[in-house]
Amino acid sequence: MSALMNRLTRDHRRFARIMALLDALVARFQGGDEPDYELMCEMLEYVVDYADQVHHPSEELIFTALRQGLGATASGPEMDPSALALAITELSDQHRQLEDTSRAFRDALEGIVHGEVLSRDAVAGQGQALIALMRSHIADEEARVFPVARTMLSADDWSRLEQQAPSAADPVFGQLDPLRFRTLYDYLKDEIDPEDAA
User: Fold this and answer.
1) Residues 21-52 as b or e (16 or more Cβ within 10 Å = b)
2) Burial 98-128 (b: 16+ CB within 10 A, else e)
3) What's the pLDDT tens digit per position in 70-120?
4) Nearest Cα to 103, choosing from 46, 27, 23?
């Protein structure tokens, strides 16, 4: 399998971990407790910055390569060209939705930290919407597009995509950015498995 696909799959596991933690914090918040806002804001900064600057642009490169190859090589029962084209369009749209939803939720949490009075239910609803969208998005990519990419794209395609893909290190699970993500790293450090530290 390509190094790029391995990275994207590993990113999905990492995002799932972040979403599980965020889900627990949002539930506490909705229940009336005061969660660790700094931790929540760091989680959202990680999702916004890493996902939107590195992960999603890498996936978009794969989507473009798949679109270009639809007419030429798509064959077999797992490659219905119209279903694949629809899945790619939906997932691309979701990348923009995830960015907007993440930023709005982060802005709301930062507003609370700075004394804004916001509806707890509305803010919790934003968090729940983000978590649900991220989880369904990852599941869709893993089920509908990644298997096709693994079979449809050639070694040359993967080599080209790996050269084009953004290459920034993961600032939490990879090369830590201690100024931005210390609270999140400290929270996760005992849970990070060696494969995720790569």
Assistant:
1) bbbebbeebbeeeebeeebbbbbbbbbbbbbb
2) bbebbbebbebbeebeeeeeeeeeebbebbb
3) 766 545 445 688 999 999 999 999 999 999 999 999 999 999 989 888 999
4) 46
Domain borders along the chain are 3-188
Distance of CA 100 to the CA centre of its chain: 13
Q: How far apart are CA 90 and CA 92, in angstroms?
A: 6
CB 79, CB 18: distance < 8 Å: no
CATH 1.20.1250.20 fits 3-188, yes or no: no
Report the alpha-carbon distance of residue 62 to residue 41 in Å, rounded.
30
The one-letter code for the residue type at 61 is L
Rounded to 5 degrees, φ, ψ at 32 are 105, -5
Cβ neighbors of 89 (< 8 A, separation 6 or more) are: none
In angstroms, the CA 116 to CA 189 distance is 32
d(CA 145, CA 161): 16
Q: What value does the CA radius of gyration of the chain take, rounded to a whole number of Å?
A: 18
